[in-house]
Design a protein that fits this description.
single chain, about 250 residues, alpha+beta, Structural Genomics Hypothetical 15.5 Kd Protein In mrcA-pckA Intergenic Region, Chain A, Alpha-Beta Plaits, four-stranded antiparallel beta sheet, 8 helices, 17 strands
């Protein structure tokens, strides 16, 4: 991403997204704050969803208190355990991935890049750099995501072919989505079940679980083992580490 593209991203950031990334609220709660007339941009109350701001120039306040942007960028690799939700705030009071981080990191308003569902463990990135987060999440950058899954049954040749060609899955809203070809291999048989390694290039909600259910092999356990060149190896479950400058640079290439 060149400097012009970065400036366009910053100048065109959605207000709700800015508030979420600033640690004020979840994206949904931020939208509720806007609708309730509690958010001002340069002194003007904004109630329209989808409003875009220039975070470098605009002054954003919530209930009259200015929202400060974070200048120290942080990039964290977390080994998420099962049972934690991948969000900065949870209205249901469940444990979030931020509970696994020390207070000094939480004060820098880091948030998850993408999501792993509550029942999935593995590699999750967190940052307070919106440019980095956008780059990792945007489909055009084709970031590889590596998984290991324990599935019911033995993966048939027909199912393997479907996964490697592309398969139609249905999302929560009822829309159908054709997946891109995945890379799949069987690691080993475990009794009547199988452990497989799978790489995808997209990040639709519960995509791996839906893909495998669609070919008749429901997921029993799922872990994300890597993103791009990053691996979870060496990081204990519930543990974290900072990304190196070289790793950040490589992910942004």
């Amino acid at each position: 991403m060149n400097m012009n593209e970065q400036e366009q991203v910053l100048q065109g950031e959605r207000l709700s997204r800015f508030l979420a990334h600033a640690g004020i609220a979840s994206r949904r709660h931020a939208e509720e704050l806007i609708s309730a007339g509690r958010v001002q941009v340069n002194g003007e109350t904004i109630t329209t969803q989808g409003t875009r701001i220039d975070v470098q120039r605009d002054r954003i306040t919530v209930d009259g208190k200015q929202v400060q942007t974070t200048t120290q960028h942080v990039y964290v690799l977390l080994h998420k355990p099962v049972g934690y939700v991948s969000t900065a705030h949870d209205p249901q009071g469940r444990r979030t991935v931020l509970d696994l981080l020390p207070p000094e990191l939480r004060r820098l308003r880091v948030y998850p890049v993408g999501r792993l569902d509550k029942d999935t463990s593995g590699l999750l990135l967190l940052t307070n750099d919106g440019d980095f987060a956008l780059h990792q999440a945007h489909p055009r950058y084709n970031t590889q995501k590596h998984y290991e899954a324990l599935i019911r049954g033995s993966l048939s040749d027909a199912a393997l072919s479907m996964l490697c060609t592309g398969i139609t899955i249905r999302e929560d809203e009822g829309d159908s989505f054709m997946t891109s070809p995945a890379e799949v291999r069987v690691v080993k048989r475990i009794g009547a079940n199988s452990r497989i390694a799978l790489t995808i290039h997209e990040g639709h909600k519960r995509q791996v679980r839906r893909m495998l259910a669609a070919v008749g092999h429901p997921v029993l356990e799922l872990a994300r083992t890597g993103i791009g060149s990053l691996s979870i190896k060496g990081v204990p479950r519930g543990g974290w580490r900072h990304l190196t400058e070289q790793e950040v640079h490589h992910l942004m290439m």
